[in-house]
Amino acid sequence: QVQLVEFGGGSVQPGGSLKLSCTTIGITFRTSDMDWIRQAPGKGPEWVSDIDTVGNTRYADSVKGRFTISRDNAKDTLYLEMNNLTPDDTALYYCARIPNYSDYVLQTHKHDVRGPGTQVTVSS
Q: Are 60 and 82 in contact (CB under 8 A)?
């Protein structure tokens, strides 16, 4: 059974930090390019970051310099370290697998499997 499950969300004050993890089951994680996506209340999904199988990373301008995506292929786990959080970062964060390398290269934002998400709330 294919399953992605996110952990690590919570409530923090502005300027705080959180580290999200995404545990994967039933996929060949080490050969999977992965995305972090977020969705704020009343808004559409927003791409946050991606990482390819060899660790190349890209970030949305809104999080560049504050967020770090990483992966541990030995643990089949994806991470998102988030620093200097602001209220604009409040959203449901979820991980997703990019189905093909061409989708990664072209940033089509297509996914074939995703997790349910973990809520991040930033407020004072």
A: no
